[in-house]
Input
Amino acid sequence: MSKAMSMDFLRPMTWAEALAAKAADPEARPILGGTDVMVELNFDRSRPSALLDLTAIPELAEWELRDGVVRLGAGVPYSRIITELGDLLPGLAIASRTVGSPQIRNRATVGGNLGSASPAGDAHPALLAAGAEVEVESVRGVRIIAVDEFFLGPKRSALQPGELIRAIGIPVTGGPQQFSKIGTRNAMVIAVCSFGIALHPAQRRVGTGIGSAAPTPLRAHAAEEFLGAELDWDGPLDRAVANRFGELVAAAASPIDDVRGTAAYRRHALSVLARRTLTWSWEEYRCV
Amino acid sequence: MDVQLSVNQDQHPITVDTRETLLDTLREQLDLTGAKKGCDHGQCGACTVLVDGRRVKSCLALTVTMDDREITTVEGLADGDTPHPLQAGFIEHDAFQCGYCTPGQLCSSVGMLAEFAAGWPSVVTPDVSAAPHLDEGEIRERMSGNLCRCGAYVNIVAAIGQAGR
Amino acid sequence: MTDIQVTSPVRDGVGASAPRPDGTLKVTGEFAYASDLWMDGMLHGATLRSPHPRARILSVDLTGALKLPGVEAVLTHEDVPGAKLYGVDHADQPVLAIDQVRYQGEPIAVVAADHPETARRACALIRVVYEVLEPLTDPRRAALDPSYEKVHAGGNVVRHQPIRVGSVFEADVVVTGEYEVGMQDQAFLGPESGLAVPAEDGGVDLYVATQWLHVDQDQIAPCLGLPPEKVRLTLAGVGGAFGAREDLSMQIHACLLALHTGKPVRIVYGREESFFGHVHRHPALMRYEHGATRDGRLVYVKGEIILDGGAYASSTPAVVGNAASLGVGPYSVPNISLDAYGVYTNNPPCGAMRGFGAVQACFGYESQLDRLAEACGLDPVEVRIRNAISEGSRIATGQIVDMPAPLTSMLEQVRDLPLPEGVSTDLRDLPGGVANSTHGEGIVRGVGYGIGIKNICYSEGFDDFSTARVRLEVIGEEAAVLVHTAAAEVGQGLVTLKAQIARTELGVPNVTIAPADTQVGSAGSSSASRQSYVTGGAVKTACEAVRERLLELAAKKLSHDGLALSGGKIVSVSGIVVASVAEVLGDDVIEETREYRHRATAPMDQLTGQGDAHTQFAFCVHRAVVDVDVELGLVKVVELAAVQDVGKILNPIALEGQIHGGTAQGLGLALMEEIQVAGGLIRNPSFTDYLIPTILDMPPMRLEILENPDPHAPYGLRGAGEPPTLSSTPAIVAAVRAATGKSLMRIPVRPEHITGT
Output
């Protein structure tokens, strides 16, 4: 193979080295599990000047619970989220089960999927619903970005040149969380659309996240506000409230027709998923 | 780039392009053609190998990241002339037809049984600390990353079920 | 001489679940698929394909590609030394495009270079100037509108086959429907690949994954300008076929490059290229009108089936023949007016896929039978029983079914099988599974039935035969058999069956299957469910000839009359063992080559479709049980039960695998598999968006296999690979209809068809 095609490969052993490398070559593409980056490379959709392999940095593969927030290292694979964080981050754990296939889940990471900023990333709705924050860092310092301000467009994020994702801060609400995804087969499928919900009982608030139904993952703000106003936190769930919530979630989306489904179906399915996940969450909340 | 690759317990000092996938290195440089290329982007599972005992899709792994990792391919599953119980089970249950997905199915099922033995919970277990039970549904769930176009799934489930007992 | 002993049947003969001879290689990773082949100094080929479905080629500039270091050849149609066109049925497809392209992905140039990446980059450096034209993508207009522009000068209709029977087209009960079948892909997991090696005699040796070595040879040699004997093919490991390897893909290209460069050339397609590199299942537009008495007995069927063959003919004519002759299904219909068309368009070329024309029709006529049942207030099984053919009935072509056709009892049997338990509460068992879209809400269970009729072997007067060479000799003091045919093992287990037949016929356990190549006569294609029948028949016949010579030799050497072969021993009339095979053979070698033909078939009348076009019919019945989330339109197939009559079970476990596999591909067509084409362009050429069933989509199966022998076939067997692909699709769709009440006129059924959004 000719030299013109080669690509530098950098494997920093510490976070400081990684930041220095990214500062020296802002075009360097960070890689963790590789499940997004490698598809682009294999199909020649991108030719980065360098790859920045972050898998040797120990702290990226760790998570910790401090002050009611899980600080999830960017490099923790989904299989570990499922096995280790099902009780603390139930919404994210349910979403993690639907990522790709078992082999993919052994490698793919939340940090990597955030970096790709795909509108179809399965973790994103759960992060939006939970009110997560993305901790990004460069040699200039650390920035904390609310996850609903992180996605700017299809495959575009708020990361600035030289910045790497260090961790994701996800509040442990203690409240029920759910995630649902539509696929046209029963495994290994990219979402036609998806929805995440998190009850925040302490704040008497409900968080939402919509996937694969707009240029970016997004929150259904009007639906959240509606529930904030209408939910009776001490009573059973009013069917009409749940239905209206579904409609408002559907209205928040701006889906398109594509090979995976129609815009109309996506809106319809979102309304169903929103109603169902709210109902399940409420049942769980009322049982506790 | 120079890499020390450990495959099936053999050491291979090799020079690879930084863009090269583990799958291409195994197939083109090490003449280990057991792992197969079926889709090139992690959607079929035919390239599944074990890295440090965990199953991964080698078409989505860069060779240069594999320095100091222990890789096992289908060629390394048998113990000398004694086939791995899963290899024997796949033959006994006729768990393949064309066989193109078989190396991936085998590596994936070896990795899956190891995950199971390590106590990885079922994805539907409400209580993640409960011991998982390897019934047919659970085998299907855990093997859902490997396509078989010949449709030998019924026999694959049977072969893995026997080996898993 | 040997002591008196009683002979026992040989192990792993016909009827046993003998293991695959290639099984060990396949589980150890040593089995050499075509893409695994490698030679010192070989070059890598790549193909430049048209991005447009229809365009004139104004110019092709190879300069940039030729300058790229590592590139050894860049060839266009001008470099094709012989015939410029090829085709499996008739030659209408350019080896490399000549002045125009007719589908997206049509090859324009091929490159050989020292590295695959270099070859691909060279392709990107070829400058082609196109005049892009509006693609002709409407198959109905192509079939019926003479004013529609032409894809080929000869017109857009590749074949129109009418069926005309009777003249009564009025009835008390009339049901109509318009149905559509999307374009299914065979999606074998091992993409097209092969290695061409130039030979010293000016010829070429090609190692390739294909379904029919000799028909490849017949097409390749004229294009290379070589006599057939200088184009020698050997079968490389085949990673699935399902019809997609019946047409040529990289064969001529690799040979051209090898002959041009004087070096071995390997071409391996990637998955995306594979979607453009082979023909697909014909999409179909179908209109049916069924007239019946009030008690559900068919009076007439009117039908129109339009099959979109895309840019080139491929096997469209034969697909049309099947769709027409089997277009009313396994039912007795006194009056028929049906027209099947296969047409050219600028859509992707379509040809063979498992089920071959019978699949599309089966979805149509089975959907109609369900409508008829509803209209008459009958159970879906009952309406089928009232109309099913049986032995002695005539099918639509007037041909008498002169073999068992126990459809009534098969239908009753599948209906009476126990049903699976009620709707599960386990997330893994619900539609969507762990994607967690329902915890039971919206779930409705449905049950549906489907039945199909498939012709086995080639039809319509085709000279359909296979050749087997069987050699018996002593190796290491033991009798050993070598079976040599050109039949393609594509995963169906034919190598196992050939060995089983040889063991049974010669009583010799030690059987070796020689690699398939063109050094022995044609075996015909591994398609039409025909190899057990035809190549099985050839091996059996050749073994019988070897046995006859062995007994002659024994009579001569032992001076003994009335000898027979039993349990691998030479026995006297009274069954006493007089010698072993090895003792009789000594240093002699017996080798016999035989061709086997099934009984002749006749063409269909061009105006009425009448004629004894088929040699054998096979039947499968499915019952599908599904759970549908009717609010989200998601489906989980809970169980598939099948009853199939195979005449004679040669290998139980391999046979079950064929039924599982055929059923799974029918499931895919029912629920998820479609190449989505818009304006002649494929929108989903990847496994991310062309979805085939996973292990979670394929449910457990209940099988009942019947053995009603066909007196015309070797061992009474019937071809088995295709019938389950026909009937599983309509059974699943019927079950989804039963759960949802939706009409579901199009497959694959998408969630939005169920939700109506």
About this structure: Chain A has a mean pLDDT of 95.
